[in-house]
Amino acid sequence: MGLTHLDKNGAVVMVDVGEKGLSHRVARARGSIHMNREAFSAIMTDSIKKGNVLATAKVAAIMAAKNTSNTIPLCHPLPIDQVSVDFFPHEETSSIESEVIVKVSGKTGVEMEALHAVGIALLTIYDMCKAVDKSMVIDGIRLMEKTGGKSGHYKRDLE
């Protein structure tokens, strides 16, 4: 399968989805942020001076999903039906995993919206906690599952 964002001459193009039918599409993405124990504890006890970190990161993720086409040049603007954002704190590793699920009835998938939202959720956590720990590491941003569209169902193998 060729790259869909390149024309026959290799120039960058936005894919024409005008003739495609509407399909219910869902994408689920995950990623993590690792931090020192002090930052992790401050998040869990809601004692970061900038405010509630996970509530702010949740709003940021929702906004990111809705605005993906403003950041990633070849993404189509999509009428997002729903965005859900969850956080899974792991005390033993002082890390927080974010999971975002994005749903749409549209002509193109929502993988980029889910991935973008996870990244922004984690960057928001970093921004709000950098005074406590500048060495935080964001990693593992990945698509976990997607349904709908011509390519059908994709589910990442167990990790």
Task: Name the features.
26% helix; Alpha-Beta Plaits; five-stranded antiparallel β-sheet; elongated; alpha+beta; 159 residues
Polypeptide structure, described:
It is a single chain. The chain starts with 22 loop residues before the first strand and ends with a strand. It is elongated, with a radius of gyration of 17 Å. It has three helices and five strands. The protein is α+β, with helices and mostly antiparallel strands and 159 residues long. Helix 2 (53-66) packs antiparallel against helix 3 (111-129). The protein has a single domain (24-148), classed as Alpha-Beta Plaits.
Number of domains: 1
What are the segments in which pLDDT stays under 50 over at least 5 consecutive residues?
A: none
CATH topology: Alpha-Beta Plaits
Helical coverage, percent range: 25-40%
CATH superfamily: Molybdopterin cofactor biosynthesis C (MoaC) domain
What spatial order of strands do you see in the largest sheet? 2-3-1-4-5
Reconstruct the topology from this structure.
Layout: E1 23-34, H1 37-44, H2 53-66, E2 80-90, E3 95-106, H3 111-129, E4 137-147, E5 154-155
Antiparallel strand pairs: 1-3, 1-4, 2-3, 4-5
Helix pairs in contact: 2-3
Please sum up the structure shown:
The protein has one domain: Molybdopterin cofactor biosynthesis C (MoaC) domain (Alpha-Beta Plaits, 2-Layer Sandwich), CATH 3.30.70. Helices cover 26% and strands 30% of the residues.
